[in-house]
Write a structure and sequence with these properties.
The structure is a single chain. By secondary structure, the chain is mainly α. The chain has one domain. It has helices at about 1-25, 30-55, 60-90, 95-105. α1 runs antiparallel to α2 and α2 packs antiparallel against α3. The longest helix is centred in the C-terminal third of the chain and has 31 residues, at about 60-90. The N and C termini lie far apart (about 60 Å).
Amino acid sequence: MINIIGNIFLLLGVLFFIIGTVGLFRFFDLYTRLHAIAKIDNLGLGFIVFGLIIKCDNIFIILKLLLIWALVLLTSSTLTYIISSHSNKSGEIPKISQEVKDDNN
């Protein structure tokens, strides 16, 4: 039963990674693509880590998995902030803002 629950979480994680990849190709500007990658992939990794923790019986491996997940969460949010901040300073305007601006003129 534990293996089945672990496999379900692993499949959910893979599903979220696929959704994030589709969002990367589907969305139209940098900001929405960053949102898809940062949020959905972190959730997918969380499901995968949780599925592996359920299947694992070694406490050191569980701690390593949690450390990897925490580091990925930290670096993903930091890099997303740096990329979006730099693109905003360089003049990249979100497409939604451009559409609203065009409608007001």
